[in-house]
From TrEMBL:
InterPro entries: Peptidase_S1_PA, Peptidase_S1_PA_chymotrypsin, Peptidase_S1B
Lineage, highest ranks first: Eukaryota, Sar, Stramenopiles, Oomycota, Peronosporomycetes
UniProt key word Iron: no
Keyword annotations: Hydrolase, Protease, Serine protease, Signal, Virulence
Family statement drawn from the similarity comment of this UniProt entry: Belongs to the peptidase S1B family.
Gene Ontology annotations of biological process type: proteolysis
Top-level lineage group: Eukaryota
UniProt protein name: Serine protease
EC numbers, comma separated: 3.4.21.-
Positions of region (Disordered): 181-213
Listed GO MF terms: serine-type peptidase activity
The UniProt record lists the keyword GTP-binding: no
Species of the source: Pythium oligandrum (Mycoparasitic fungus)
Region forming the signal peptide: 1-22
Amino acid sequence: MRWVMRRWILAFFYCLIVIAAGQKSVKSAPVHGFGIRHINISAGCSTESDGAFLWENISYGIQHLDAQFLVFRFAHLRLPPGATVTIRDGSQHEATPVFQFDATSRHGKRLYTKPLRSHQAVIEYTIDTSAGEPDTTECYGFLIDQYRYAAQGVYRTPSQFKYERRLKASNTVVDHWSSDEILSGSTSDDPGDIGDAEALANQENGDSDDECVSSLDESEEAACTRRTPTVFELSNPVARLLVHKESGSIFCTGWMFGCEGHIMTNHHCVADQSEANSTVIEFLAQGPMCKYDCEEPLGCPGVIEATSSEIIMQSGEVAMDFTLLLPRLSAMERLNLTRKYGFLTMRSTPAVFDERIFIPQHPAGFGKRVASKHAATYGRVVSLTEPGCNGNANSVGYFLDTSGGSSGAPVISYQDNSVIGLHYCGGCMNSAIPANHIVQTLIDASKLPRCAQSEFHWTESGAGGAMAKRDLSSQPNIYF
C-alpha cells in the first residue's frame, strides 16, 4: 500500500508500508502530529481486535522513504516465557537482531525503542510452544501502536515566546511542536523557517529576530576543535537528546552536570516525567576527524547511554527554563559515564561582561558542533541584562551561531572552563539563563549535584577590573 503525503518544507515526500513475502499487512491510521505514523502490530492480551493469537509467529516489514530514523512505541508490553519480539534493520542483507524484547524486558505502556538509523525495519514475534501454549489467565501480549520517523529542532525566539504566552492567556491551544513548518533538520536561524506563529508574532510586536543572523554559519564540527584541546575535552560531556513528546519528537542538547551523572537541559525540551521516561541520551555523536560532515539529523552516531531518566528538579520556561535529569542507571554506571566523558560545572558567580565564550551543541540533531566565533571575532558576553525569551531582563546575551536543537547547550567560559549560562533562546541576540541563578536555585532546594560548582571563580579585582582567580578548595577537583 502506498500513501502520498503532502510535502512540507524540509519534510518528506511520502510513506510506504511494504508487505514482504510471508509478512502480515500493517494497518495504518492517518498521520497525527509531526513525524508520527499510527499502526497496529499486536498479539495477545490488551491489544486491538485484529491482534494475532499469542502462540502464532508473526512478521512485519515496514519501509518509510526519507525517514530520518525509525522509533517504535509499545503501547503495551508483557511477553510470556519463551516469546521474543525482534526489531532489526530491514535494509541489511544479513541483518542481525538490533533490538530484542522478551519476558525479562521492562513491562509497561508507552515504551519507545532506541532509534533505528534506517528507513526499513522488520518486526518479528516468535514463541517457543514446545512447553505448551501460554497461560491465557495472565495478560500476556504486546501492541506497537505507532512509529516515529522524524524529529525537529526546537527554535525559540523572544517574539515567538511572547506570542505563545498571549495565546495561552486567551485559552488558545498552543502546539508549535506539531507544526510541519517548524524546523526539521534545518540549520537556518531565519524566522521564516519556523512557521506562521513566529511571523505573526514579529508583525504584531514590530520585532525582527533575523537582523543579526549571520549568513555564514561559523560554528564547526567538534573534531575541528582538537587544535584547542581544552575546548575539545569540554565538549565531550555534551550529549544529543531525542525527546518524544505526545505531538512529535524533538532534538535538543544536554550535558553532564557534576560527578554523579546528572544531565542538564531546558524545560522546554523535557517538560514532564512522561517525556523524561523516553528521552534518548547520546554521547560523542560527532565525526572522528575534522573533514567529516555530520550535518544531518542523527548524523555521526555516537553512544546511546540512556533511554529513560528521572526528573530531579525543573523550573518553568517563564522562570529559568531548566530541567535536571538523572538517567535510570545504577550509581556505578552513572559514575562510569562521568569517567568516560567527563562532566561540566557551573559558576556560582555571575558571568562577566566581554568574557570569551563557546557553545558545544547539536543543532537540528546534527553531529556535535562548537560555536566560538561570530563575524570573524571570538564569541563574547555582550549583555548581562538581555530580556531573552522569558522577558526577565537578566539573561546572558551573546552572538554565536545556534539553531533548533541547540536548546539546552552549555555556554562555557574560556577563562575558567565554567558553564556561565544555559542556552535557551535564539533570535537577536542569543541568550542564556545565568548559571549562578540555576546554582542558587538548586542549592536552596538541596538538589545541587556533587562537584557541580566550579572549583575556580573569576572575580574582578583592582581598579582596572583585572580578572583574578579564586580557589574554592572545599570543592572537588574538576576532571575530564
